[in-house]
Amino acid sequence: MATDSNQPTVPQVTMTLSAIAATAATPRPSGETLAEHSTRIILGINQQLADASLATGGSWVLSWLGVSPGNANMAYLAKNTDGSNSFAVVIRGTVGSETDLMEDLDVGTVVPFNLVGMPSPVPVAKGAMKAFTEVVTMSTAGVTLAQALTTALGRAQPNPTVYVTGHSLGGCIATMVAPYLQTLTWPNVKPNFELHTFAAPTAGGADFAAYVDSLDWQANERHYNTNDMVPQAWNNLEATKQWYPSPGPAANTDVKAVIGTLIGLPGPNVYVQPGKDDPLNDGYQPFDPNLVKASVQDFMGQVAFQHANSTYLGLLGAPDVPSGPVVTVVTPIGTAGAPVEIVGSGFSQGVMIDFGTAPASRQHVLRDDVMVAWAPEGVGVVDVRATSNLGTSPAVPRGQFAYGGPAAVVVTGISPDSGRAIDKVQVQVNGINFAADAQVYFGDNLAELLDYAPEQLLVQAPSPTLGLNKSATINVTVLSNGYSSPASPADEFTYLEWHQD
Predict the structure, then answer these.
(1) First and final CA of the chain: distance in angstroms?
(2) pLDDT digits (tens, 9 = 90+) for 248-257
(3) FRET pair for 258, CA 20 to 30 Å: which of 40, 298, 300, 313?
(4) pTM above 0.85, yes or no
């Protein structure tokens, strides 16, 4: 890779490759075979590797890709065509499947990690070992990762560089895959290996870290956001109980209880991070200003922001990778066969629409941000989601479609969002689909309704429920037409001058 000062740095490139690995990570809601899903992943990764505006410069090409049967793990091999004689083994991080989560959390049991030439086995987490085994044994058309890399290096010039990289769980597994690759015999070439992990939890203990660090690396670096909880696992989670500094969200009692549970998962096993530390920031920057209240959902939302691929790319000064489609608002009520207007973004990229687990009967894109889809047969309330080669839109409260109605109730904001209980604060609750029977609750206390409109309610905040471990920040919930509005940071109200019993 070029080292000119105008060229992207190795961390910028490897983090971009790692972010690209998340392309189309989840299967389409209406279902795909593994082959169909793999094809969509390949198309999306090729699209992003060809993007010259990214730190990867459009010069990397996909050589091999493998997906495990349950989609818990994915890895790909890419070659740089810029003349730098470099290759990259990229391992995907967590995508939220149950298998993925089990691999992340199965740290209470350790098993031996034993490679050819190791002086003796070293213990690693059982979950990490399972993921490592899947990555190195999965094959595409009968070809494994090691076989694909052997073929690629067999055509390379002398002294090629092989980057092994990943974000989150992908980085954790990279610390096992990279040593494995070093133990293999490479015909006619001696690769120079570099290990670059981002936001990675640790896979093993002190013996594992010492073994990884003892190998012959051209570089062995652990890159992390100092405000990201995930790379603190599993050796420094206690420190996160003191997060986040002003403006927050400070960990309240409930958050500390959650963290305490996570701290207990390793049991007697002591974990240690391998690699040279590379903290990407100093101080509490950046942060999401919409997630600063002392509540579990704001704290975990801030954790998700700090851990995101886009945050890491921003900290490295690299361009963000293109995002998948987004659905923001849909026509809330209809019947099978009815046209439904969908507002969002990313609709011009061959997008496909699903109503719950059923595909739209037909669809028509008007603009990149507006399209029409015809509702398939269905009942109840379903999420309308859009899928392209870059991914699937998340389910959102205003993206729900109700067959036959009534439409789902959503709170979109409150004003003010704080006040003293003794002041009998009047609060305006904004949202959609409020019926005349609307009731507003502040936590578990019913508020007095002062004025009603279908998209705006005026209430008087009730006195809070006092007691030990009761949070000063609660959710404002509207019950109407049989619906309860989903909780979100937009509906949080904080009682000021809070005193616990």
Answers:
(1) 62
(2) 999 999 999 9
(3) 313
(4) yes
